[in-house]
Design brief:
Blueprint: H1 5-12, E1 18-21, H2 26-34, H3 42-53, H4 56-61, E2 63-68, H5 70-73, H6 83-89, E3 93-97, E4 102-104, E5 112-114, H7 120-129, E6 134-141, H8 150-169, E7 173-180, H9 191-211, E8 220-221, H10 237-251, E9 258-261, H11 268-281, E10 287-292, H12 294-304, H13 311-328
Parallel strand pairs: 1-2, 1-10, 2-3, 3-6, 6-7, 7-8, 8-9, 9-10
Antiparallel strand pairs: 4-5
Helix pairs in contact: 8-9, 9-10, 10-11, 11-12, 11-13, 12-13
This protein binds 1,3-dihydroxyacetonephosphate.
């Protein structure tokens, strides 16, 4: 593969493919494993991720990149092959989450700032050596009656821009992820409030990217969809798709090669349906695809349940979801296909 940022970014949004977000931190993967009653150990985390990365049909045909957590990028499969090599062998690009998490922001009650800039240049050089060709940094914005504040929006956007510039210096494509939460507290905001806040956040992020001299051609945006809060859901799928496209067209320059959504707590089918409607019904200047964590993994995790005997069935569940989302990435998903 060529090493130009533009080419890596294009490979990450190959038509009909998308990104598997498998970069759950140790705390988050423990929460996921708790739901199947499995202890989270280095080996169980390895086994779980190896199960997905060895789902060959899904990985070859539907997945263009995989976001890994630090531990996973260094792990070897049970047979000794580095997990990153398994991903590459399937034709997908290995990537790495490099932020150190969203921490309470001093002076901003109820808001967070994402940490991880100190020493990032050195860490990126090491990750490049380990095979990562893209990275991810997630800034988190919460909606309530009084939030977000301008200070939190601006400082999270600045951190994203500083991270993105360092990535590009290291030959790594930054996934810029400013997530406006749908499942924050109290989670009762309307879709129009989500539109207003996301519009503000994305505008601010692209201003900061410009000031930081980030090349738009060598990055991928990972936004939330425009959707009601988790406790206020009522917009139709068509409305979510229409408002999301409208917001992105108003804020994301056409020079950005691709937009890969997070799922953010949507059900598997909703996340797929929304993406498919956008691709089917609108003329878009960028590739529009998925970078789902929960919406790609939930069914596979449940089917696997931590048991060796269930690996093949879990791979089938993962492959089904990957296929549905692959179809959505070209606007060809239909509800009837879910039963197949
Ligand atoms: P979800 O799709 O589960 O929201 O996760 C995507 C992700 O990478 C969040 O940072």
């Amino acid at each position: 593969m060529s090493e130009r940022l533009e080419d890596i970014a294009a490979a990450m949004v190959t038509p009909g493919q998308g990104i598997l977000a498998a970069d759950e931190s140790s705390g988050t993967i423990k929460k996921r494993f708790d739901t199947i009653g499995l202890e989270s150990t280095a080996d169980s985390r390895r086994d779980y991720r190896e199960m997905m990365f060895r789902a060959e049909d899904a990985m070859k045909n539907c997945i263009s990149g995989v976001i890994l957590y630090d531990e996973t990028l260094r792990q070897k499969a049970a047979d000794g092959t580095p997990l990153a090599e398994i991903i590459k062998a399937a034709g997908a690009v290995p990537g790495i989450k490099v932020d150190a998490g969203a921490k309470p922001m001093a002076g901003f009650d109820g808001e967070t700032i994402t940490e991880g800039l100190d020493g990032l240049r050195e860490r990126l050089a090491e990750y490049h050596g380990l095979g990562a060709r893209f990275a991810k940094w997630r800034g988190v914005i919460s909606i309530s009656k009084d939030l977000p504040s301008w200070g939190a929006v601006k400082q999270n956007a600045q951190a994203l821009a500083r991270y993105a510039a360092l990535c590009q210096e290291a030959g790594i494509v930054p996934i810029v992820e400013p997530e406006v939460l749908m499942d924050g507290q109290p989670g009762d905001h309307t879709i129009d409030r989500c539109y207003e806040v996301t519009n503000w956040v994305l505008k601010t992020v692209f201003d900061e990217l410009y000031d930081a001299r980030v090349s738009l051609e060598g990055m991928i945006l990972k936004p939330n969809m425009i959707i009601d809060g988790k406790n206020a859901r009522k917009a139709s799928r068509e409305e979510v798709a229409e408002k999301t496209v409208r917001c992105l067209k108003a804020t994301v320059p056409a020079a950005v090669p691709g937009i890969a959504f997070l799922s953010g707590g949507q059900s598997d089918e909703e996340a797929t349906a929304h993406l498919s409607i956008m691709n089917a019904n609108f003329d878009l200047p960028w590739a529009l695809t998925f970078s789902y964590g929960r919406a790609l993994q939930a069914a596979a995790l449940k089917t696997w349940g931590g048991k060796k005997d269930n690996v093949a069935a879990a791979q089938r569940a993962f492959t089904h979801r990957a296929r549905m989302n692959s179809l959505a990435a070209t606007g060809e998903w239909k509800k009837e296909l879910e039963a197949a």
